[in-house]
């Protein structure tokens, strides 16, 4: 997710530099991951109306949050191990180099708007968890709300019935059941170390295949009529993630 975002940022930054300050009718430009056409259209309308790249990114990513694009953006998707949906989002303003983000935000569905509030109203970059929720609600976003859906609860129930497989644990016991989990062996210096065979097992299970179905989520980049760049992303994260991820 973040690599994609940095790539888009560099790509668009260099195209702006190459073009100088003047707008020769090339802008606005809106780019998004995946065919999230409605999100791109929403961002385009804002940018084409003369509003800032930041406004356009917020509108575009918000549209995906409302539409629950692919089930990977906004509420109602990607339950964690407890069955709860949480939200991550980030926005960068290329004109000012400001960044705002929220991570593992509970009970508030408006990820990208919360990220913008962090950027615009704090000296921080990232707020996390329940404190991010409290901030977002205090700043006027709706909540607290239940971010689960019938679909996410159903997915989660089936996963529980399947012994909580697959999951994101490694080097723990039990290997093929639900938690609570414990370290398979003590890894601290005073407690002795894992046998080499265990560590090799970690390496193998950690190298996952990267392809069309191994990633998702909206990332969006906009150049507004002024030639300013903004980028953003919003997601409900990995399905069956360990809470807090
Ligand atoms: C949240 O919504 C889901 C899906 O509608 C429901 O199953 C669950 O019980 C709700 N949780 C709470 C705490 O209301």
Structural class: alpha+beta
**Secondary structure: number of strands:** 8
Sheet with the most strands: spatial strand order: 1-7-8-2-3-4
Q: Cofactors and ligands present?
A: 2-acetamido-2-deoxy-beta-D-glucopyranose
Q: Provide the low-confidence segments as ranges.
A: 13-20, 196-207
Distance between the termini: 14 Å
For this entry, what is the oligomeric state of its chains?
Answer: single chain
- Describe the main β-sheet briefly: 6 strands, mixed
Shape: elongated
Determine Rg (CA atoms, Å).
20 Å
Q: How much strand content do the residues show?
A: 15-25%
Order of helices and strands: HEHHEEHEHHEEHEE
Number of continuous helical runs: 7
Q: What's the number of domains?
A: 2
Helix content: 25-40%
* Average pLDDT for all residues: 88
Structure in words:
- The protein has 245 residues and is of the alpha+beta class.
- It folds into 2 domains: 3-149 and 212-235, no CATH class; 169-205, no CATH class.
- The protein has 7 helices and 8 strands; from the N terminus they run αβααββαβααββαββ.
- It has helices at 2-19, 37-48, 53-67, 111-121, 129-138, 150-161, 196-206; strands at 29-32, 87-93, 98-105, 126-128, 172-173, 182-183, 218-223, 229-235.
- The protein has a 6-stranded mixed sheet with strand order 1-7-8-2-3-4, sandwiched between helices. Strands 5-6 form a two-stranded antiparallel sheet.
- A hairpin with an 8-residue loop joins strand 5 (172-173) and strand 6 (182-183).
- Helix 2 (37-48) packs antiparallel against helix 3 (53-67) and helix 3 (53-67) runs antiparallel to helix 4.
- It is elongated, with a radius of gyration of 20 Å.
- The two termini are 14 Å apart.
- Mean pLDDT is 88; it is low at 13-20 and 196-207.
- The chain binds 2-acetamido-2-deoxy-beta-D-glucopyranose (NAG).
- The site of 2-acetamido-2-deoxy-beta-D-glucopyranose has 5 residues, from helix 6.
């Amino acid at each position: 997710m973040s690599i994609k975002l940095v790539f888009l940022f560099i790509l668009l930054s260099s195209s702006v530099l190459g073009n100088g300050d003047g707008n020769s009718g090339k802008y606005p430009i809106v780019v998004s991951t995946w065919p999230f056409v409605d999100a791109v259209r929403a961002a385009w309308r804002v940018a084409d109306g003369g509003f800032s790249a930041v406004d356009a990114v917020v509108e575009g990513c918000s549209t995906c949050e409302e539409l629950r694009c692919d089930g990977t953006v906004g509420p109602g998707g990607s339950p964690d191990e407890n069955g709860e949906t949480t939200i991550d989002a980030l926005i960068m303003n290329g004109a000012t180099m400001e960044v705002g983000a929220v991570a593992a935000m509970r009970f508030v569905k408006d990820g990208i708007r919360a990220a913008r509030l962090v950027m615009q109203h704090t000296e921080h970059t990232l707020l996390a968890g329940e404190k991010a929720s409290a901030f977002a609600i205090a700043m006027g976003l709706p909540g607290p709300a239940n971010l689960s859906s019938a679909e996410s609860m159903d997915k989660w129930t089936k996963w529980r019935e399947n012994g909580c497989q697959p999951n994101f644990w490694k080097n723990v016991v039990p290997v093929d059941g639900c938690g609570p989990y414990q370290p398979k062996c003590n890894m601290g210096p005073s407690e002795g170390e894992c046998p080499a065979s265990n560590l090799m097992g970690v390496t193998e299970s950690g190298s996952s295949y990267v392809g069309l179905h191994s990633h998702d989520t909206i990332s969006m980049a906009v150049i507004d009529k002024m030639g300013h760049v903004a980028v953003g992303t919003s997601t409900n994260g990995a399905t069956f993630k360990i809470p807090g991820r």
